[in-house]
Amino acid sequence: MSLNTNNSNQDSVISVKAMDIITAFLFMVFGLVVMVESLKLGAHWGSDGPEAGYFPFYISLIILLSSAINLYQVAIVNKKKQTESFVDKESFKQVMVVLLPAIIFVLGVQLIGIYVSSIVYIAFFMVWLGKYPIWKALVVSVWVSVSLYLMFEFWFQIPLPHGSWFNPLEFVGVQ
């Protein structure tokens, strides 16, 4: 149930009904994928008990049927949700302000490693959202990355991603 029951769609990004339909459809696709893969593993009762795909098959069948019932209810039965706003533009903007840099951070970890990506990510958020001076953001972000390096790579001897595309830390001897 939505906390925002604003019936004006002028500032709404998407309605509750549309999100319910999208969610039900995605769960139906998930159920079908698991069901097909379970059949490949064997979803029958063998001579020595259930095969590997037996329980996943029936769980995915329950997911598929539940999602179909939800889709029917939202699309056919419940007409009220058509005008109910799921998220407005301002709330959506606030989520995107955090989500998009997080996605870029994850890509950065893959390409240039976790240490340099963490420096950029932490400093960016401190300056942009926290309104800290650049020098404070750089001090904190470098301190956090150096602490992570010492803790994981040096003390625990667990290597974290250094970057598959380019490793900027090769210049200081970190392989």
Q: What general outline do the C-alpha atoms trace? A: flat
Please give the domain count: 2
- Provide the low-confidence segments as ranges: none
The chain-level mean pLDDT equals: 87
**Cα separation of the termini:** 50 Å
Number of strands: 4
Q: H/E element string?
A: EHEEHEHHH
Strand order in space, largest sheet? 1-4
Largest sheet: 2 strands, antiparallel
Tell me the fraction of residues in β-strands, as a range: 5-15%
Q: Describe it for me?
A:
With 175 residues, this protein is mainly alpha-helical. The protein has 2 domains: 9-83; 89-172, no CATH class. It is 63% helix and 7% strand. It is built from 5 helices and 4 strands, in the order E-H-E-E-H-E-H-H-H. The chain has helices at residues 16-41, 54-77, 89-112, 114-128, 134-155; strands at residues 12-15, 45-46, 49-50, 85-88. The strands form 2 sheets. A two-stranded antiparallel ribbon has the order 1-4. Helix 1 (16-41) packs antiparallel against helix 2 (54-77) and helix 3 runs antiparallel to helix 4. The radius of gyration is 24 Å and the shape is flat. The termini are far apart.
Topology of this structure?
Blueprint: E1 12-15, H1 16-41, E2 45-46, E3 49-50, H2 54-77, E4 85-88, H3 89-112, H4 114-128, H5 134-155
Antiparallel strand pairs: 1-4, 2-3
Helix pairs in contact: 1-2, 3-4, 4-5
